[in-house]
Design brief:
The structure is a homodimer. By secondary structure, chain A is mostly helical. The first copy, chain A, has helices at about 5-25, 30-40, 50-75, 80-95, 100-110, 115-140, 150-160, 165, 175-190. Chain A binds a DNA duplex through helix 1.
Chain lengths: ~190, ~190
DNA sequence: TATTTTCGCTAACAACTGTTAGTAAACAAT
DNA sequence: ATTGTTTACTAACAGTTGTTAGCGAAAATA
């Protein structure tokens, strides 16, 4: 059994699906349209996926994995809350900018997941956000950040970060690191006690 | 001809459509489902709208109007760029928080508009963003804001502001004005020269 | 080489999609 | 009272949706 080839076709489908879902939105892309782009018939998908939704699930949970894995490597390196936050932002931006299509699906089309997968997804997202919340709380407790509402601050940070997939251009004037640096500056200077 | 009643039914449809589109996404709501909630048959919509898309169009362009009208009243009152920006943010947040359903449709479902309406919509959005861009540029030129990339700054501001519809709760601990105040503080302190 | 598994195809399904035609009741205007 | 208009209905359309069944060729395993 050539596991390689199976994985390759499955990955190819995921890649094309990401691209099409991003372009038109999950609900607006039919299996037949997807099939055309892959170069197979719609029915052949079911040798690789159980359903259309399971493609969406794959994309969303892969991204969740990427976010977690990338963040994990970072949070143990630094000690100071503002430095940790800076690194965490950098990690987050790196994941988004190296998967813009998947990011768009992750941020927009997760809502088309049905239960119980939907709850699973939201739980993951909550956990991830909580890591940031903890960093911020620590910064406030240690007097490095100004005492603002945590939830509010986390929401605002994520909204700035998560919008990057929309406008990031690999050929544009900002590298992912520069974007992270600018966002960190904008956000951290707004939070820091002065 | 009782124009009143016509307008009322049309408004009722728009209101329910906003709510359902927000809940499930435009493409996931069928005319029959919408009809059930209004209490009519799907075919009866066509006495009030030409198409499903024209309901979406109505919602999106109404919101655009609200944003423009609200902003216009503000920008002539103040003179200093940071004060103008503060007022503009307040105006923007006020529009979002008093139309959360419509905002969700405005920010998420506009992409399902088809040409030429889509281009019309994007042009409006561009115009609106440009007003903010001008304010920021003036602030930078006058040395009130730090010299950062304008486009980048505008994108970041809007991403924080436009996410508010997602989490704003009329019964929550923040009033729209408090949200605007906090966002202004976070953003402006990040931008201001120190 | 023989056998099993993988992966593609065609054909078809039942349900659902937005929308139109035709019609009748309710309503407003004359 | 008689128009004309608005608004709802039923029935149906043509097309699309995700998905399954059944089949054959190719590929991997033995």
């Amino acid at each position: 059994m050539s596991k390689d080839k199976t994985i390759k076709r499955k990955d190819q489908i995921t890649l094309i699906a990401q691209n099409k879902f991003r372009e038109k939105g999950y609900r607006a892309v039919s299996m037949r349209e997807l099939a055309d782009h892959v170069g197979i018939e719609a029915a052949s998908f079911y040798n690789h996926f159980n359903s259309k939704e399971s493609i969406l699930k794959e994309i969303c949970f892969r991204m969740a994995d990427e976010f977690f894995n990338s963040l994990e490597k970072v949070t143990h390196d630094e000690k100071l809350p503002d430095k940790i936050l800076e690194k965490a932002i950098q990690s987050h931006i790196k994941v988004i900018t190296s998967n813009t299509d998947a990011s768009a699906v992750f941020f927009l089309d997760w809502r088309y997941l049905s239960e119980p997968v939907l709850s699973e997804f939201l739980e993951l997202r909550r956990k991830y956000e909580n890591i940031f919340r903890k960093i911020i709380k620590e910064g406030m407790d240690k007097g490095i950040f100004e005492k603002l509402d945590e939830t509010f601050t986390v929401l605002t940070i994520f909204s700035s970060l998560n919008w990057v997939y929309e406008w990031y251009d690999p050929k544009g004037k900002f590298t992912p690191d520069q974007i992270a640096e600018n966002l960190s500056k904008l956000i951290l200077d707004g939070m820091r006690k002065q």
